[in-house]
Amino acid sequence: MYTTRFCPYCVRARMLLEGKNVEYTDIRVDAQPALRREMMQKSGRHTVPQIWVGNVHVGGYDDLARLERSGKLDQLLQQVP
Protein backbone atom coordinates (compact mmCIF):
# COMPACT_ATOMS: atom_id res chain seq x y z
CA MET A 1 0.00 0.00 0.00
CA TYR A 2 1.45 3.35 -1.05
CA THR A 3 0.62 6.07 1.48
CA THR A 4 1.59 9.33 3.06
CA ARG A 5 1.79 9.83 6.79
CA PHE A 6 -1.04 12.29 7.36
CA CYS A 7 -3.47 11.48 4.55
CA PRO A 8 -6.84 10.79 6.23
CA TYR A 9 -7.73 8.15 3.63
CA CYS A 10 -4.40 6.41 4.27
CA VAL A 11 -5.14 6.41 7.99
CA ARG A 12 -8.58 4.89 7.33
CA ALA A 13 -7.12 2.23 5.05
CA ARG A 14 -4.58 1.27 7.72
CA MET A 15 -7.33 1.12 10.34
CA LEU A 16 -9.56 -1.06 8.16
CA LEU A 17 -6.76 -3.52 7.40
CA GLU A 18 -5.48 -3.57 10.98
CA GLY A 19 -9.03 -4.15 12.22
CA LYS A 20 -9.10 -7.28 10.05
CA ASN A 21 -5.64 -8.33 11.31
CA VAL A 22 -4.24 -8.05 7.80
CA GLU A 23 -0.49 -7.68 7.45
CA TYR A 24 0.51 -5.09 4.88
CA THR A 25 3.53 -3.20 3.66
CA ASP A 26 3.21 0.55 4.08
CA ILE A 27 5.25 2.26 1.37
CA ARG A 28 5.49 5.92 2.36
CA VAL A 29 5.81 8.25 -0.60
CA ASP A 30 6.21 11.41 1.52
CA ALA A 31 9.27 13.24 0.20
CA GLN A 32 10.12 10.18 -1.90
CA PRO A 33 9.67 11.25 -5.53
CA ALA A 34 11.00 7.94 -6.87
CA LEU A 35 8.46 5.94 -4.86
CA ARG A 36 5.65 8.28 -5.88
CA ARG A 37 6.64 7.82 -9.56
CA GLU A 38 6.71 4.05 -9.02
CA MET A 39 3.21 4.21 -7.51
CA MET A 40 1.91 6.30 -10.41
CA GLN A 41 3.43 3.95 -13.00
CA LYS A 42 1.95 0.87 -11.33
CA SER A 43 -1.50 2.31 -10.60
CA GLY A 44 -1.99 4.97 -13.26
CA ARG A 45 -3.12 7.24 -10.41
CA HIS A 46 -1.44 10.04 -8.49
CA THR A 47 -3.47 9.99 -5.26
CA VAL A 48 -2.81 8.05 -2.09
CA PRO A 49 -3.45 5.52 -0.84
CA GLN A 50 -2.98 3.05 -3.66
CA ILE A 51 -3.69 -0.43 -2.40
CA TRP A 52 -2.89 -3.87 -3.73
CA VAL A 53 -4.05 -7.19 -2.36
CA GLY A 54 -1.50 -9.62 -3.67
CA ASN A 55 -1.15 -8.69 -7.33
CA VAL A 56 -4.64 -7.15 -7.56
CA HIS A 57 -4.77 -3.36 -7.63
CA VAL A 58 -7.74 -2.46 -5.44
CA GLY A 59 -7.41 1.30 -5.86
CA GLY A 60 -7.83 3.84 -3.09
CA TYR A 61 -9.54 3.80 0.28
CA ASP A 62 -13.02 4.25 -1.18
CA ASP A 63 -12.45 1.18 -3.36
CA LEU A 64 -11.18 -0.81 -0.37
CA ALA A 65 -14.17 0.23 1.75
CA ARG A 66 -16.56 -0.69 -1.07
CA LEU A 67 -15.03 -4.17 -1.23
CA GLU A 68 -15.40 -4.49 2.53
CA ARG A 69 -19.06 -3.42 2.50
CA SER A 70 -19.86 -5.89 -0.28
CA GLY A 71 -18.12 -8.76 1.51
CA LYS A 72 -15.66 -9.18 -1.34
CA LEU A 73 -12.57 -8.00 0.55
CA ASP A 74 -12.42 -11.16 2.67
CA GLN A 75 -12.70 -13.28 -0.48
CA LEU A 76 -9.86 -11.36 -2.08
CA LEU A 77 -7.70 -11.61 1.05
CA GLN A 78 -8.20 -15.37 1.18
CA GLN A 79 -6.68 -15.69 -2.29
CA VAL A 80 -3.34 -14.26 -1.14
CA PRO A 81 -0.85 -16.90 0.02
Fill in the keyword field for this structure:
Glutaredoxin; 4 strands; 49% helix; single chain; two-stranded antiparallel ribbon; alpha+beta; 81 residues
Which homologous superfamily in CATH is the superfamily? Answer: Glutaredoxin
Gross geometry: globular
Mean pLDDT: 97
> Low-confidence segments, ≥5 residues, pLDDT <50?
none
CATH class: Alpha Beta
**CATH fold-level label:** Glutaredoxin
End-to-end Cα distance: 17 Å
Question: How many structural domains can be distinguished in the coordinates?
Answer: 1
What Rg is obtained from the alpha carbons, in whole angstroms? Answer: 12 Å
- Output the structural class: alpha+beta
Return the CATH architecture.
3-Layer(aba) Sandwich
Largest sheet: 2 strands, parallel
Question: How much β-strand is present in the residues?
Answer: 5-15%
Helical content band: 40-55%
Put simply, the count of helices is 4
Secondary-structure element pattern, one letter each: EHEHEEHH
Strand count:
4
Strand order of the largest sheet: 1-2
Detail the topology: elements first, then pairings.
Blueprint: E1 2-3, H1 8-19, E2 27-28, H2 33-43, E3 51-53, E4 56-59, H3 61-70, H4 72-78
Parallel strand pairs: 1-2
Antiparallel strand pairs: 3-4
Helix pairs in contact: 1-3
Tell me what the structure shows.
The chain is of the alpha+beta class. The protein has one domain: Glutaredoxin, CATH 3.40.30.10. It contains four helices and four strands, in the order βαβαββαα. The chain is globular and about 35 Å long. The model has no long low-confidence stretch (mean pLDDT 97).
